[in-house]
Amino acid sequence: MAPSHGLPAGLPHLVHDAFVRARAAGDLTFFPTQVALLRVHGVPFQLRFAPSLAKKPKPSDDKISKVPSKPFDPFENPPPGLLIVPQVGEAGSFTHRLVLNKFAISQDHSILATSDFRPQTHLLEAGDLAAAYACVNAYHEEGEELYVFYNSGTHSGASQPHRHLQLLPVRRMQEGVEPQMREECGGTMDGILVDQLAWTSATLPIFVAVAQLPESGGASAATLHATYLALYRQACAAAIHTSAINADGETVDAAAEESGTIPARMSYNLALTRKSMAILPRTAEGSMVSPGGGTLSLNGTVLAGTALVKSDAEWDALRNDASGLENVLVQIGVPVGSQTLKKEQTAAL
């Protein structure tokens, strides 16, 4: 099956070759991470120590939540060394471009950004999801799996106001996890977390709205968007009595929100794979690990079962204590208390 949306054949190899060139030229920053495995609610979590990410520039909340007058936009005219596919979309309607992430958290970390400015705080459009899903299928055609995530809102880990989804090859995300580590953690890693939440009995101590997608990889743009909106509604319903929902969230114009003309009423992370989609409502970007243990901030990699640690204090406080990570999760999401979370599964529409 030929790749769709103008994506070239052999996309994983094209991305990797571009990554190698860009790293050698100094166009991007990437350093291998240390990794530890923890189990939270019986689910393996990767704790990855990436101190280089502490140097990544972070804009103010004002820059994330509002359309800027004219600050630097890394996706408006990306450097040639980071550009992979300049035109992504249906024939005659190219809506996105694929670029390398200048601050990579794993090898071959790429970004699918809209060609024209679209706000990161507004709900995704069908075309955004279709383009991301086309990338997922392009990787699958080459025998690889891709994890896509989207950070939206001030509590989500979002770092740029220009709409973009982030793409991580699953194989690259699992580098450094040795068989002995898996055994010490109590078992193998049975796929990426979002797929476990959608297809198995795995749960988390916080609410996650999850849906199964057709295993054939044949979900249409309309199906993807309808599933996304259904999950978003579930997440809003779960978060309505928490600080996750904006003060006027109960009276928001849902039609305007879902058409993308006004900002979403809450911060959230979206995860997308070939098999699954999930939305995690967010109440905070991070939480203190322990007194003197630093503050751990989490973005959409959390739905892949990965927590990125940027300081020695966080790393030392968490790597041998899964309860610390579980406490952070409860602080950044909508907790389900001591009861085992009943997953709200939405069948693909």
Strand tally is 14
Order of helices and strands: HEEHEEEHEEHHHEHHEEEEEHHE
- What percent strand? 15-25%
Q: What are the segments in which pLDDT stays under 50 over at least 5 consecutive residues? A: 338-349
- What is the name of the CATH class? Alpha Beta
Domain Ap4A phosphorylase 1/2 N-terminal: 11-175
EC number: 2.7.7.53
Keywords: Nucleotidyltransferase, Transferase
GO molecular function, one term: ATP:ADP adenylyltransferase activity
Q: What would you say this structure looks like, in words?
A:
Helix 3 crosses helix 7. The chain has helices at 11-25, 61-65, 126-141, 170-173, 179-184, 193-199, 221-239, 254-258, 312-318, 322-332; strands at 34-40, 43-49, 83-90, 93-100, 110-114, 146-152, 164-169, 209-212, 267-272, 276-282, 286-288, 295-297, 306-309, 344-346. It contains 10 helices and 14 strands. The protein has a 9-stranded mixed beta sheet. Strands 1-2-13 form a 3-stranded mixed beta sheet. The protein is α+β, with helices and mostly antiparallel strands and 349 residues long. It has one domain (11-346): HIT family, subunit A, CATH 3.30.428. The longest helix has 19 residues, at 221-239. It is globular, with a radius of gyration of 19 Å.
